[in-house]
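Troubleshooting: if your tokenizer reports a length mismatch, compare against these two reference records.
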Amino acid sequence: MDFPIVELMDQESCYRKLTGILHPAGLCCPRCRQTQGLNVHRRNRWPVVDYHCKGCGRVFNVFTGTVFQGTSRTCAELLIILRGIAQGVTTAQLARELRCSRPRLLELRHVIQDRAMKWLDITALPDAVAEVDEMYQNAGEKRHPTRRPGRSAATKSQQGQGPRHMGKRPPAGVRNCRASKRPGSHGSGASK
């Protein structure tokens, strides 16, 4: 079952989050890089605001110069797309949740991933040899040795009677007495 989470998200908070992601140093004019003298030009696509730069006269918004420039998607949809890509959600599932075209969403996903790869820090590890757990993203620090109880391992005479799921079974090789006493069977109690 797909859950339409977009309808429950607050567009203004999503806009603020996207602004922080796309412009971590703060919003500035994409042409002259000025942060002062940015006036509101129009508000025709709430909560996205178009700004007018007093320095160079450029009109822009938070998506200008980014992969989302010219998009008609809402801020909540864009945030869900970014979250889905980061979590490894399939494009088909994202398309169903957003009720949009899978091929177009796949194109957008490829563009986002290509841009992300350009900014990826591909530096070599500081060690000449890397352990496998160091290669995983969520690998923790090396831990202490496993804590052992204060007693030694049980000897053979101290071990239990065997696996609990086996129950009381006859030893291997012993025949079932009931099977040998049935009429017509070839056991010891059958007549010849």
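Reference record two:
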Amino acid sequence: MGRLQRRLGPLVVLLLIGAAACSSITGDDDEESGTQLELNETFDEVRSGVRLILSFDAQANAFIGTAENTTNSLASRVRVEVHLSNGTELGPTTPTDLAPGEVMNIHLPATTASFATWSAHPEVG
């Protein structure tokens, strides 16, 4: 192994570890679940410290629910998106900073085009 390779090897390893750590901190690796829900199902999951509870209200033709900061620190720029099976993306909601324990209401109007399933996720940061 050449001198340059011996010197760069540890640096490359450190860069890879740093990139993986940054992805975990920002929540980039867990934003989109891909799980498709039926119209009568409720999304209820915690991602990046934010608990999103969301369901489709057929009467209002909208997705209604809450996003709650479950951590002991500020959750910055929390926003929510919904992806419909017809290819439409709803949102994101207006980015909002949530203090520990703070809850924000979610209301995302749906499209008039029909859809059979949907998925949702909060984004933080």
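Descriptive notes for reference record two:
- Residues 31-123 form a domain with the Immunoglobulin-like fold (CATH 2.60.40).
- The CA atoms of residues 79 and 93 lie 5 Å apart.
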